[in-house]
Amino acid sequence: MQNRRHFFRTITGAAAGVYVAGRRGLTAAQEPPARRQVSIGGRRVRVIDIHAHATVAEVEPVVKGTPYERQAGGRPLGPDRIALIDTQGIDIQALSINGFWWWEVQDRALADRIVRAQNEGLATFVSRYPDRFVAMASSSLQFPDLAAQQLEDGVTRLGLRAAAIGGHVNGDDLSLPKFDPFWAKAAELGVIVFMHPGGADNIVREGALRGRGDLGNIIGNPLETTYFLTRLIFDGVFDRFPNLRVGAAHAGGYLPSYVMRTDVACDVRNNASCANRKKPREYLRSQVFVDTMVFSDEGLRHLVNEMGVSQIVYGTDNPLNWPVTVDLVLNASWLPEADKAAILGGNLTKLLRITS
């Protein structure tokens, strides 16, 4: 789980850096930057960000004195996050807690307390700024039945709008039947499950992505996402739960870029043993949603062509400093105005049940 710990330390440092850098640039007489208002065709549109990292202070006393104490630290959410999204033109951000270090906890009671603290902490923050944030539920997926209960509690009691998960549970594929109680509950509740990877330590040998370039992030994260989605498809998870909707960070990894090979695998590989009832591409166009982290006009065009506008949502990896802005969508001259509005916020308005 070394990559997960590295991810958590990295995001904590980056978040603090964004805040400090932003504050250093201000003098006493200066006001924070004005909130960017995004319009398409002269009409104001609401921008919603599905890919936003957060930590909450409420979990710290729960793990104090345990081996997980150092994992719980980070940057508590506050008004500085509002200042940050204001400059980026984001109206509503869907907050999730990533790293999934608590999946290593084998004490069921402690795992439950950690998740409850995280979910309640996010719900408390959202209640202070209900017009700017919604949140996703964490869960203890090392105990699938408990995870289903936690998800239901987060959605029904706390008003959380989605579920946040990683790509594997201590090396176990999430397409295994033992995780079906969680998938069944997500489908029953009608919430999207947003997956964020942690470096593909379930796929590559230890140290394989070391060296220059931070390859555990650059290659490992999209690789883990690709494997995760492909397993759900070939192992029949989407068929077992036809109402299930899954979101994937980083534009769905490599899968949308090479889905044509996946699409024919069950036809041409005699040993494929596929459990899926439909072509893989059909799941990408119905039950899978991906964010806009492709960084180029051509990348966005390819994503739209392979998956369709209805399956693409805006995501930033906030507060990390990836160059993913609303301008990628706004400047896509080939994209109709209605499609731009759908990607930037319309699709997520439906998926996250945002009414106000």
**Count of domain modules:** 1
Low-confidence stretches: 7-29
Structural class: alpha/beta
- The chain-level mean pLDDT equals 90
CATH top level label: Alpha Beta
Sheet with most strands: 8 strands, parallel
**Distance, first to last CA:** 40 Å
CA-atom Rg in angstroms? 20 Å
Number of helices: 14
Main sheet strand line-up:
3-4-5-6-9-10-11-12
Can you write the helix and strand succession as a string? HEEEHHEHEHEEEHEHHHEHHEHEHH
Report the helical percentage: 40-55%
Taken from the alpha-carbon principal axes, the silhouette is globular
Number of strands: 12
**Proportion of beta-strand residues:** 5-15%
CATH superfamily: Metal-dependent hydrolases
**Known CATH architecture:** Alpha-Beta Barrel
Q: What name is given to the CATH topology? A: TIM Barrel
Please give a quick description of this structure:
Helices cover about 40% and strands about 10% of the residues.
Topology:
Elements: H1 2-24, E1 39-40, E2 43-44, E3 48-53, H2 60-63, H3 79-88, E4 92-96, H4 108-128, E5 133-137, H5 144-156, E6 162-165, E7 168-169, E8 172-173, H6 180-189, E9 192-195, H7 215-218, H8 220-234, H9 237-240, E10 246-248, H10 259-268, H11 280-284, E11 288-291, H12 297-307, E12 312-313, H13 326-330, H14 337-351
Defining traits:
alpha/beta; eight-stranded parallel β-sheet; 14 helices; 356 residues; single chain; TIM Barrel; globular
What does this structure look like?
By secondary structure, the chain is of the alpha/beta class. It has one domain: Metal-dependent hydrolases (TIM Barrel, Alpha-Beta Barrel). The protein has 14 helices and twelve strands. The protein has helices at residues 2-24, 60-63, 79-88, 108-128, 144-156, 180-189, 215-218, 220-234, 237-240, 259-268, 280-284, 297-307, 326-330, 337-351; strands at 39-40, 43-44, 48-53, 92-96, 133-137, 162-165, 168-169, 172-173, 192-195, 246-248, 288-291, 312-313. The strands form three sheets. An eight-stranded parallel sheet has the order 3-4-5-6-9-10-11-12. It has a two-stranded antiparallel sheet with strand order 1-2. The protein has a two-stranded antiparallel ribbon with strand order 7-8. Helix 5 runs parallel beside helix 6. The protein is globular, with a radius of gyration of 20 Å. The termini are far apart.
